[in-house]
Design brief:
Elements lengths: L1 E4 L2 E10 L20 E9 L2 E2 L6 H18 L1
Antiparallel strand pairs: 1-2, 2-3, 3-4
Length: 75
């Protein structure tokens, strides 16, 4: 997916995991706290050049936030 961060358009390759709901009580009395939605970015490219290893963490966090917002808005 193509996204923009700090005025640069990048292609982001990632995995998305939907949020899992909390289970208050299974039949045996146990439960599950649930988990939030998550995005794992595994590759970022600019004009087919892989910049994953050199992109700053703050930009990766921005991209993750954009992707989470996009998936949330789609549902």
């Amino acid at each position: 997916m193509e996204l923009e961060t700090q005025g640069v358009f990048v292609d982001v390759h990632y995995d998305y995991q939907e949020a899992e709901a909390m289970v208050y009580n299974y039949g045996d009395g146990s439960g599950y706290p649930g988990s939030p939605a998550s995005v794992d970015i595994y590759k970022v490219t600019v004009e087919d050049v892989d910049i994953t290893d050199i992109i700053a963490d703050c930009y990766l966090e921005d991209l993750q936030e954009q992707l989470l917002n996009w998936h949330t808005d789609e549902q």
